[in-house]
Amino acid sequence: MVSKIFKSFDEAVADIKDGATIMIACFAGPGGFPYFLVKALAKHGAKDLTVISNTAGGIGLTFDFDDHKILFENRQVRKVIASFPFSVSPSKPTCAEKQIIAGELELELVPQGTLVERIRAGGAGMPAFYTPTGAGTIVAEGKEERIFGGRPCLLEHALRADYAFIRAYKADKLGNLIYRGTQRHLNPAMATAADIVIAEVDEIVAVGRLDPEAIITPGIFVKRIVRLAHEPDFPRHLNKSFWAKPKKGQRRKR
């Protein structure tokens, strides 16, 4: 059996071609974000990408968070499908926001629950579904609408990708994954809805070492695993200094 374990993040993303569609698990913060996979993709340089993610990176949170904004800064992205592509601070627009306004980046704005359900449907093999979310709003433009139970509902199509970058806590050598904390946001859904799922993990263990009851993503979905190396340039948002408890009378700096 071919090993799913890759020695480096660069190796894991090396075959991504221009024009690929990539799901990137993100929930507006550092928890459960595949930082090193995104960093490797930025270095790799594939362009004209379609990115499916909760945000478009760099949304202006009060702490320093390195995320997939680098892909937009590098102008590697042609289209983004997201729920929250804009900054939380109007005075500090994101790179993606500037490109969208300038007509340089295509945006498909999707309500957050609908985004997750479209991904889940893609993983379940469902081509489409109806939802009342967004009916009567700008989201409904160009979409089929039907009435169910007296409520207008929109037809939403499933989402799938060529690749999915996900972040998990542990993997075994078959690719079975368990998550910890906020890693349980979009990661499990995205792991079912891509042709090639690449998992960035803290630890890889032998088959049989994971509690079967704790496994969330079966290894059948995962094609590649890369163990996280605590490199010198490890994400600033995970530095111990950020999480250090402030001294009495002081406020945490963010």
From TrEMBL:
Q: Report a single Gene Ontology molecular function.
A: CoA-transferase activity
| SMART domains, per the entry | CoA_trans
Pfam families from the UniProt entry: CoA_trans (PF01144)
Q: Which UniProt keywords apply?
A: Transferase
InterPro entries for the chain: 3-oxoacid_CoA-transf_A (IPR012792), CoA_trans_fam_I (IPR004165), NagB/RpiA_transferase-like (IPR037171)
Superkingdom is: Bacteria
NCBIfam families annotated for this entry? pcaI_scoA_fam
Q: Under what name is this protein listed?
A: 3-oxoadipate CoA-transferase
What is the organism field in this record?
Candidatus Wildermuthbacteria bacterium RIFCSPHIGHO2_02_FULL_47_17
